[in-house]
Amino acid sequence: MDFPSKVDQRQDDGTQKATEINRIISAEIKDITTWLVRNWGGMFDGIDKIITITMVHLEDALKWIPWPVTIAAVCIAALIMSGWRLALLALLSFIFIGLMNRWDSAVETIAIIIFSVIVSVVIALPLGILGARSNRADGAMRPVLDGMQTMPSYVYLVPGILFFGLGYTPAVIATVIYAVPPAIRLTNLGIRQVSPAAVEAARSFGASPTQILTKVQVPMALPTIMAGINQTTMLALSMVVIASLVGASGLGEDVFRALQRQDPGNSVIAGLSIVLIAIVFDRLTQAAARSRQEALQEGH
User: Fold this and answer.
1) All residues at 6 or more sequence positions from 25 whose CB lies less than 8 Å from its CB, including other chains
2) Nearest-angstrom CA–CA distance, 100 and 95
3) Mind spelling out the 3-state secondary structure of the chain?
4) HSE, side-chain direction, 13 A CA sphere, residue 170
5) What's the domain range around 246?
6) In terms of pLDDT, which residue wins out, 30 or 220?
7) Distance of CA 58 to CAs 2, 86, 87, 134, 177, Å?
8) What mean pLDDT is reported for the chain?
9) Which end of the chain has fewer CB atoms at under 10 Å, N or C?
10) Which residues, at least 6 apart from 91, have a Cβ–Cβ distance to it below 8 Å?
11) Are 277 and 106 in contact (CB under 8 A)?
12) pLDDT band at 3, cuts 50/70/90?
């Protein structure tokens, strides 16, 4: 008969202590969550209604526009900003999506991306400006942003599910949390990189701090800010399939359902549609940033 050694007993004691600590922390988190839902449930319901209604109307508006008009608008924008190659790429990409009977799903996906990116930009611009103007604020935000960018993407679904259940809201919130850090970082970086001489020249002409920010720093930092928006858009698209786990419709849902049915053909088609949308969006945002950079250089 084997008797446990002192080392084994110490390991068992350590395991029991770790289990007890884990139980205590889990219980505290559950209590905090329950308290928040009980006392702030009305606020969460209001946020849920606002996001859901906005998403429904945005989807309906995009679906109401005839698909030839949508394709023509994107192609014209691509032609103006970049040239015929990008316009042809956009045309072929959207024709492929339409021929594969994925147009409605693509529109639903684009609606989520548009709304999530807009919310991300609204959050990122003031935080990035704050970080650029205050080293203390920048130091406080940096570890938070590092954690947001290194945390597994599935973890972002947890707060949304806890407070909002299934639907558009947790999908949008998870997408925003996952995608917003690059926009904050590059807004901060872009404003910090603005030439001190330009700022000093504006100040010497009597410009107020607000005028310097809105008429000098932000316009000159816009190419870098656009690069941040580009990265935010790509990260939002990368969350499409994961967001489908909490009720988001669109191409991500098509991929998820095809995988559940063990249907590789439809999953590949839906996945390829996501890739094509990502490529078109990436090229368009890059072209917009490049156009702004060229305009600044011509101004100098």
Assistant:
1) none
2) 9
3) CCCCCHHHHHHHHHHHHHHHHHHHHHHHHHHHHHHHHHHHHHHHHHHHHHHHHHHHHHHHHHHHCCHHHHHHHHHHHHHHHCCHHHHHHHHHHHHHHHHCCCHHHHHHHHHHHHHHHHHHHHHHHHHHHHHHHCHHHHHHHHHHHHHHHHCCHHHHHHHHHHHHCCCHHHHHHHHHHHHHHHHHHHHHHHHHCCCHHHHHHHHHCCCCHHHHHHHHHHHHHHHHHHHHHHHHHHHHHHCHHHHHHHCCCCHHHHHHHHHHCCCHHHHHHHHHHHHHHHHHHHHHHHHHHHHHHHHHHHHC
4) 22
5) 42-299
6) 220
7) 69, 26, 25, 37, 21
8) 84
9) N
10) 71, 75
11) yes
12) very low
Residue 109 and residue 258: Cα distance in Å, rounded?
16
Tokens of 262: 């063990």
Instruction: State the first-to-last Cα distance of the chain, in angstroms, to the nearest integer.
Output: 87
Total tally of structural domains belonging to the chain: 1
In terms of Cβ atoms closer than 10 Å to its own Cβ (0-12, 13-18, 19+), residue 67 is middle
| Residue 263: exposure state from Cβ atoms within 10 A (0-12, 13-18, ≥19) | middle
- Cα(275)–Cα(115) distance, integer angstroms: 19
The yes-or-no verdict on residue 124 having pLDDT over 90 is yes
pLDDT of residue 185: 93
pLDDT attached to residue 12: 54
Query: Is 36 among the domain residues?
Result: no
In a domain, 107, yes or no: yes
Query: Which pLDDT does position 292 carry in this prediction?
Result: 67
Cα–Cα distance measured from residue 83 to residue 79, given in angstroms and rounded to the nearest whole number? 4
Instruction: For residue 210, give the CATH number of its domain.
Output: 1.10.3720.10
| Longest alpha-carbon distance in the chain | 91
Is pLDDT at 104 greater than 80 in this prediction?
yes
Residue 6 lies in a domain: no
For residue 18 the two structure tokens come to 């770790």
